[in-house]
Amino acid sequence: MVVFYNSLKNLCILRNSPPQLFRLQNVRTLLLQSASESVKLLQHTDSDAEVKLERPETKNAIGNDMLRGLQHAFEAVNMDHTSKVLLISSSVPKVFCAGADLKERKAMTPSEVQNYVRSLRSTFAYLEALHIPTIAVIEGAALGGGLEMALSCDLRICGEDAVLGLPETGLAIIPGAGGTQRLPRLVGKSRAKELIFTGRRIAGRDALSLGLINHCVPGSKVRDKALEVARDINQKGPLAIRMAKKAIDGGMEVDMSSGLSLEEECYEQLLHTKDRLEGLAAFAERRKPNYRGE
Questions:
Q1: Disulfide: which of 84, 138, 218, 232 matches 96 by Cβ 3.0-4.6 Å?
Q2: For residues 119-153, b (16+ Cβ closer than 10 Å) or e, as one string?
Q3: What is the pTM (predicted TM-score) of this model?
Q4: CB contact at 8 A, 206 and 161
């Protein structure tokens, strides 16, 4: 049975339902239709959630409708404490996301453009701050805002036929949804400047050599690789994964001494968890641990 939810509000209603009902729904495949028809949120198992982009007529260009859908989907994932990994993928062949919807933007006033970009930037910042690991599954083109969304994920996996780039300077603007900040943190200042100044598009293998991508595989294997990585993550202690993400992300923004203090704080939060004791017991008994996120 597949249960459909038409909005984030309905998800909230479910979470406030009797515990036995909520547990029953969690063992089924859930499909949350967000406020946008071009964004679907699926929960395949108790561990993996997936945001799928479905706007083939524009190659998944991000207009206001899709942006609202992304916001609702990310908020729903943040509220759901059963999911351990979020995948972001496309149902449109040969494209992940072509960036902002320039046809829609052409009709906007400068003030409306400013509000749109500000909202896009905050949405990607929200994605970056999600408490669980996120994986961008890039099959085909990831350009402009599409690449900026991928940069906001923890991990990026692409196919050999993928094309990535930030072409904004060719339109006399700059990446405005985090690209000028996240790209140099991944590939270094000089390389980021070259890619942004020239607007050059690069293939998957080149992106891998730059450190922009975690894995580059044959095009037909992208999703399989993403699911493999997600499974590896799912086998680890979920609270430990969340604390590791917090320590890494927070530590990158401060000096080493402050980063080490943050690491200590995150480590101490795990000392009295049931999962830590389960990990020790499983190691001693030479068996696979059964982590519950407690």
A1: 138
A2: bbbebbeebbebebbbbbbbbbbbbbbbbbbbbbb
A3: 0.85
A4: no
Nearest CA to 34 among 16, 49, 47, 17?
A: 49
pLDDT tens-place string over residues 133-189: 999 999 999 999 999 999 999 999 999 999 999 999 999 999 999 999 999 999 999
Task: Give catalytic residue positions.
Answer: 100, 145, 148, 168
Helix H or strand E encompassing 160? none
| Buried b / exposed e along 266-280 (16+ C-beta atoms within 10 A) | beeebeebebeebbe
Interval 228-257: pLDDT, tens: 999 999 999 999 999 999 999 999 989 999
201/67 Cα distance (integer angstroms): 24
- Please tell me the distance from the alpha carbon of residue 204 to that of residue 219, in angstroms, as a whole number: 10
Q: Are 143 and 93 contacting, i.e. CB atoms less than 8 angstroms apart?
A: no
Rounded-to-integer distance, Cα 42 and Cα 87, Å: 10
CA-based nearest residue to 129, from 10, 261, 265, 246: 246
Phi, psi of 8 (to 5 degrees): -60, -35
